[in-house]
Amino acid sequence: MDTSAFQAWVHEASLLITEHASRLTDLDAAIGDGDHGINLRRGFQAADEMIEKSESETDTPGAVLRTVGRALISKTGGASGPIYGTGFRQAGKALGDVTDVDAVLLGSALEAAFNGIQQLGAAHLGDKTLLDALGPAVTAYQVAVEDGGDIVAATRAAADAAERGLAETIPMLARKGRASYLGERTIGHEDPGAASTALIMRALATVAAGEAS
Amino acid sequence: MKKLINEPEGVLNDALVGFAAANPDLVVNLEDRYISRGPTAGKVALVSGGGSGHEPLHGGFVGYGMLDAACPGEVFTSPVPDQMLAATKAVDGGAGVLHVVKNYTGDVLNFQMAAELAGDDGLQVESVLVNDDVAVENSTYTAGRRGTGGTVFVEKIAGAAAERGADLAATAAVAREVNDRSRSFGIALSANVIPATGKPGFELGDTEIELGVGIHGEPGRARGQVSTARELAGVALDAIHSDMPLSGDVLVMVNGLGGTPLIELYVVYAAVSEWLEGHGATITRNLVGNYITSLEMAGCSITVARMTPELTELWDAPVQTPALRWGR
């Protein structure tokens, strides 16, 4: 994937999140404070705009992702800003200055995003957070690459796994963030952060397959 | 949704424009989104912030003897590190900056990033976490105790210490002491409505109340039934007392959550006074009114701080802010 593919990923993610903003907000209203879709839409639209405006500075895939990270931190607010921002920044750092990212390197970047978010939020798998979608996605991606899959197959495997991971958050009890105060009342609901992560991974698979809108 | 607003997405900006017009002695930076005074050379600066919808917190507490700057986020959404960094730089008087952070995941993460960025720029920043809400019992499996009414006490008393020339470490120590000595418990009679969604944040039946509610409508310990003010004050104070035994001199705040008339807050205050007297505690200072609200939520929170003569003296020190002023 080259720089323009990464720009396309951000654009596609922004479109998907905008399209699903009210669903994300409804999920958050059920177990959080009902602003996830609103905040993330603001953040991703800002990230998309910032990339369009600063084309000269975002001339490598890593620079694109680092810029996205900064934009999300600057514009999103709430917990999602620092969390997603850190994920994209760490992924961007893992890519370094490489201009064409192969399947193996993208896998390291996804893993770096997972580790960065895990460290920042101190959440564990099973706590009903976005990690429950991102973790399975990273694993599925790496398994697909080890099995000889290309970037198209691996990102598709990752997106599918993120969606399965999202479904698996339904019976979980939230232990992090504002949802944690609801305790058992969070059981039976999808986690909004896992839902947005599934959208971002789906956007990546769509772009990798050359099917972006 | 019936609200006195223009467009839902413009609420914060419109409110800040109004706040600026009403308080010409303060700086309202609409671009970077912060409210400030100063800087005051040689004084430790206090910066706080958080989601909007809790007014007068925090912007209403910017002024002499209290905060130097406040960073308002979108309604119930933490502000971003850029705002905090801009505010921190604007008010730094060369003696360091204390960030007063309420314990919510978003606030904690964003302030943490702002403090790191400020440190990179050579500024001296310390952070104090406020987590006074006793309603959260299971801190191991949650994001921990929330910062609520104790925030007002922390900002007032640490602000007074800074005004008197305490250095950064001493100001932070006072702030932590006040937090350690403060406990809160909230009760909601009705839900709030976030302008951007237009829907109630949670559902309460006609006779239901939420015992231990958080300032965004987070659930507390239990759903209860409407009861007398005397009984509900007892529930709140029992919860506080079993967490931190109350005796000696106390500072008490009976705080309206936004949709409860003052006359009811005084009814509650009478019950609180009676309860505390019966348990051997003496109210030496008090606040009754709307200081940390939750949009139009009806209900109140009760905050009690066990005072020392030193803390009472700092409480009495002059303060001149839009929402709290005396002695000057």
TrEMBL record, chain A:
The keyword Zinc does not apply. GO terms for cellular component: cytosol. InterPro entries: DhaK_L_YcgS, DhaL_dom, DhaL_dom_sf, Dihydroxyacetone_Kinase. Keywords: Kinase, Transferase. The keyword Flavoprotein does not apply. It comes from the Bacteria. It holds the Pfam family Dak2. GO terms for biological process: glycerol catabolic process. GO terms for molecular function: glycerone kinase activity. SUPFAM superfamilies: DhaL-like. Residues 4-206 form the DhaL domain. This is Dihydroxyacetone kinase DhaL subunit. The lineage of its organism: Bacteria, Bacillati, Actinomycetota, Actinomycetes, Micromonosporales.
Automatic annotation (TrEMBL), chain B:
Pfam families: Dak1 (PF02733). Residues 7-326 form the DhaK domain. It comes from the Bacteria. GO terms for molecular function: glycerone kinase activity. GO terms for cellular component: cytosol. The keyword Kinase applies. InterPro entries: DhaK_1 (IPR012736), DhaK_dom (IPR004006), Dihydroxyacetone_Kinase (IPR050861). GO terms for biological process: glycerol catabolic process. Keywords: Kinase, Transferase. Coiled coil: none annotated. PANTHER family: TRIOKINASE/FMN CYCLASE (PTHR28629), TRIOKINASE_FMN CYCLASE (PTHR28629:SF4). This is Dihydroxyacetone kinase DhaK subunit.
